[in-house]
Write a structure and sequence with these properties.
Elements (H helix, E strand, L loop, with lengths): L1 E2 L3 E7 L6 H9 L6 E7 L6 H11 L4 E3 L8 H11 E2 L2 E5 L4 E2 L3 H22 L4 H5 L23 E10 L5 E3 L2 H4 L9 H4 L11 E3 H7 L11 H12 L1 E13 L13 H10 L1 H21 L7 H6 L6 H10 L7 H10 L1
Parallel strand pairs: 1-5, 2-3, 2-6, 3-4, 8-11
Antiparallel strand pairs: 6-10, 7-11, 8-9, 8-10
């Protein structure tokens, strides 16, 4: 286990030689230098390892390489990094983007606000550490667990930001991914986050308590992505905070694991009619993700999480009633129509 009192930047890489130096240089250029980058190469077959070793040799206190067998995906690579690094705060970093110089500074400022709100909520509701984590007060939205894990005086906190979408040469495609993909990232309600991921992992910062809760999941195959899983936990149990300000150049190229798409009505209708099975599979994965949340943490039986997790047992009219009653909404309208069509 690697330990630090600084911000841990977790860098998941694989075959990243084309863009990795620009990303690592953008970390070095941050206005807030109180960080350490922990990097795990997931089995690269190009010159990635040589690049990583050169940065680690130049600044071994700043760039730490983690040994370990390939995990198979970006999601499981980030789980590996989270398990092997202990820090007060974590950020996730993809290999092909560029961080704007004040990304850490701005995100940390919002995290401090989220942490203050967390403390205020606990004080206002007269909740003690024992009440929350030992489960002696069974209250909707409060996790139980190990009082020694993470910071027992905090709720799980996650801060995420907008992104500037760029092409492979860093030419701007859109000044806001939130607008480009019509994501409605400002909506941090659990009702929204259950059916739409508003968090792009390479923008997020999480506290140790959320990291510990993320790792409570036994089987990562039950969730879509690590960032969505973290967002669900924060939305349900703690503080999920959005900064409407791009802090990253989000590079689009042919090898992205995920990417930004310009979501138009025509695009989505085409997806609906020609990839109907994929939409059904996607909805089922979202349901299983909610099921994993309900199985991993205590939630009330009539909560939106528990009801959505069990929606597959209902008839089509029953499922539609659940969407209406609990205001399970997604943006844009074309995406919501697709959900209602295939639910």
């Amino acid at each position: 286990m690697h330990q630090t009192s600084k911000i841990a930047i977790l860098v998941a890489v694989r075959d990243g030689e084309s863009y990795l130096p620009e990303q690592l240089d953008s970390l070095i250029g941050q206005t807030d230098s109180d960080w350490v980058a922990y990097i795990h190469d997931d089995g690269s077959a190009d010159g990635t390892q040589t690049i990583l070793e050169s940065y680690a040799a130049r600044d071994p206190d700043r760039f730490v390489l983690l040994d370990g067998a390939p995990t198979g995906s970006a999601k499981t690579n980030y789980f590996y990094l989270l398990r092997n690094v202990d820090a007060p705060l974590y950020m996730c970093c993809d290999q092909d983007d560029v961080w704007l110089p004040d990304k850490i500074e701005k995100t940390l400022r919002e995290m401090r606000i989220a942490q203050r709100r967390s403390a205020e909520r606990m004080a206002q509701e007269n909740l003690s550490v024992k009440d929350i984590y030992a489960g002696e007060k069974k209250r909707e939205g409060m996790p139980s667990g190990n009082t020694d894990a993470g910071n027992p005086t905090e709720l799980p906190c996650l801060v995420y930001t907008d992104l500037r979408v760029v092409d492979e040469s860093l030419a701007e495609v859109s000044g806001s991914m939130n607008l480009y993909q019509k994501l409605n990232c400002e909506d941090t309600r659990i009702n929204h986050v259950l059916v739409q991921n508003v968090v792009t992992g390479c923008t997020m910062m999480i506290n140790r308590r959320l990291r510990d809760m993320v790792l409570s999941l036994k089987d990562p195959d039950k969730i879509v992505m690590h960032d969505w899983w973290a967002a669900l936990i924060a939305a349900q149990f703690g503080e999920l905070r959005y900064l409407n300000d791009p802090t990253i150049l989000y590079r689009q190229h042919g090898e992205n694991d995920t990417g930004a798409k310009n979501i138009s009505l025509f695009w989505y209708l085409r997806e609906v009619f020609f990839q109907g099975k994929d939409k059904k599979d996607s909805l089922e994965m979202m349901r299983k993700q909610a099921e994993a949340l309900a199985e991993t943490f205590p939630v009330e039986k009539d909560s939106v999480v528990a009801v959505y997790a069990g929606i597959h047992t209902l008839s089509k009219p029953g499922r539609l009633r659940v969407y209406r009653k609990y205001k399970l909404t997604s943006k844009p309208l074309s995406r919501q129509l697709a959900i209602l069509l295939f639910c």
